[in-house]
């Protein structure tokens, strides 16, 4: 068995361009890497074609470990990718996360470019294995600070991966799309300063369509012409924001009934707004 006992451990180093370097501790694997088939294997969950697997060569790095590099230029479709090591005829083995140096991802501000923005964040699964969350977006609307009060949501953001952000944002709006009926939309004007933008989305307009239960509105940044960009927060080192970035629900007197409204990040780190029934006041 080329790997020895146990699953290999991988340290990850991220660079500001979106690339990742993996250094593996795997007894016996350094010598086995002389085989042409030694590779780091990324498999996308739910992938059922060739685009669902990426193989990166494993080579000795000089200190008894082996290394694989995932450059930002290697296309990695959006999704969750499980990380394996394969060598010879052995079945690929899941990797266990080691140290992760993700400092370059914190407050990342990509340079000017029109190529798709590549974001890859390694994380430990609930079973203790190493996986990657990948995004590939162009254009990209990065959500920033969010301010709340009962009247609405004021949001800040930055636009990336367009040739002329100022022209793109001219006459742009934030568009809220009702998830249960995508033909129902509400818009809010955008104030731009270079690539940065601000908007205020009133809750009253969203609550007009609410008839009890849970409603979700997905937020997009839409230019006067061309395709819209989903508002999301992906330019940092947090792979799953839904349970980390939380906001207090605002009490709104909706037409149907008293409601609770709050923004939240989805499982894909996209920004949405939820409307639900206000629980009865405890007595």
Order of SSEs, N→C? EEHEEEEEEEEEEEHEEEHEEEEE
Which percent bin holds the helix content?
under 10%
Task: Characterize the main sheet.
Answer: 7 strands, mixed, barrel
Find the count of extended strands (DSSP E, 2+ residues).
21
Radius of gyration: 22 Å
The total count of helices amounts to: 3
Looking across the biggest beta sheet, what order are the strands in? 12-13-16-15-14-17-18
Please, what is the average pLDDT?
A: 90
- Strand proportion, as a percent range, falls in over 45%
Q: Low-confidence segments, ≥5 residues, pLDDT <50? A: 1-5
Distance between the terminal alpha carbons, to the nearest Å? 66 Å
Structural class: mainly beta
The shape, in one word, is elongated
How many distinct folded domains? 2
Describe the structure.
The protein has 283 residues and is mainly β. It has helices at 29-32, 165-169, 203-207; strands at 9-14, 20-25, 39-44, 53-57, 59-60, 66-70, 79-86, 93-94, 96-101, 117-124, 130-137, 140-149, 152-160, 173-178, 185-193, 196-202, 215-222, 229-232, 250-253, 258-265, 271-277. The strands form three sheets. Strands 12-13-16-15-14-17-18 form a seven-stranded mixed beta barrel. A hairpin with a 4-residue loop joins strand 19 (250-253) and strand 20. The relative contact order is 0.13. Residues 1-5 have low confidence and may be disordered.
């Amino acid at each position: 068995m080329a790997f020895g006992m146990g699953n290999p451990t991988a340290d990850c180093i991220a660079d500001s361009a979106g690339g990742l370097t993996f250094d593996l501790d795997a007894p016996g694997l350094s010598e086995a890497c002389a085989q042409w088939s030694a590779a780091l294997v990324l498999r996308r969950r739910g992938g059922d074609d060739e685009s669902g697997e990426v193989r990166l060569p494993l080579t000795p790095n000089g200190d008894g470990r082996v290394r694989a590099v995932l450059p930002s230029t290697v296309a990695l479709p959006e999704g969750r990718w499980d990380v394996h090591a394969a060598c010879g005829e052995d079945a690929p083995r899941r990797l266990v996360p080691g140290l992760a140096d993700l400092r370059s991802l914190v407050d990342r501000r990509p340079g000017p470019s029109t190529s798709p923005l590549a974001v890859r964040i390694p994380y430990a699964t609930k079973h203790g294995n190493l996986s990657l969350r990948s995004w590939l977006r162009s254009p990209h609307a990065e959500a920033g600070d969010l301010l709340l009060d009962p009247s609405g949501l004021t949001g800040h953001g930055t636009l990336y991966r367009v040739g002329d952000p100022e022209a793109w944002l001219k006459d742009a709006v934030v568009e809220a799309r009702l998830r249960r009926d995508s033909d129902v939309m509400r818009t809010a004007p955008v104030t731009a300063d270079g690539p940065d933008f601000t908007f205020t989305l009133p809750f009253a307009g969203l609550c007009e369509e609410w008839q009890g239960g849970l409603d979700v509105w997905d937020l997009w940044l839409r230019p006067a012409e061309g395709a819209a960009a989903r508002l999301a927060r992906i330019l940092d080192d947090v792979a799953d924001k839904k349970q980390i970035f939380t906001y207090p629900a605002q009490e709104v007197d909706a037409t149907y009934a008293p409601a609770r409204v709050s923004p939240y990040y989805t499982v894909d780190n996209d920004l949405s707004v939820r409307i639900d029934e206000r629980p009865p006041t405890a007595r």
